[in-house]
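Morning!

This is the sequence you dropped in the shared folder:
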Amino acid sequence: MIKNLIFDMDGTLIDSSAIIANSINYVRSKLGLPPMQSHLILEAVNDTSIHRPKFFYGVEEYAPQHVEWFREYYAANHHTQTVLYTGIRELLEEVRLHFGLALATNAYRESAELILQHLGIEHFFDIIVCGDEVAHPKPAPDMIEKIISFFGCEKSEILLIGDGKTDEEAAKNAGIGFIKVNWGWQRYEDAIESVEELQETLLQLRNL
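The structure's back. Tokens below.
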């Protein structure tokens, strides 16, 4: 029986495509690099085969300055460049009556809190785990393992809902179930097509 749900944030609950692409291009501008097309940035965010620091900035590892510049743009613009996907608030209101809810995002805590508070959904989650709070973010299983420990549940009692390969691999690496949604930044053949369909699917899990 599924007792707890883990949600990804970007591309699953929140359309943050503009703020992420623009924040990365802001860092690129600081480095003297030309802007990168938004669709290439968003594809790379969910492509676990890409070495992202080299792809985005031509470096082997992110430097503190890269993070600082990213956060600078993010903090100044998140309120105008992020929105909830239609129906998400209603979905969370319904499913929290039946499941424990967690959020697992590779975003930094500071950035995640800015968005979640601005959009008014932070209170739906019993635990929020961010990319800078574990040794290895998704697709590593660290976040999921931390959430499982928090709930004290079995792996068979929890699943992850996300929009891409990063989430799918994280669920697989942690040994839990996964539901893929199809309204994020990429399109898939084997994914749930609407928030309404997701809500119906999740509510059906109450009886399994």
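Headline: Residues 17-81 form a domain with the DNA polymerase; domain 1 fold (CATH 1.10.150).

More detail when I'm at my desk.
O.
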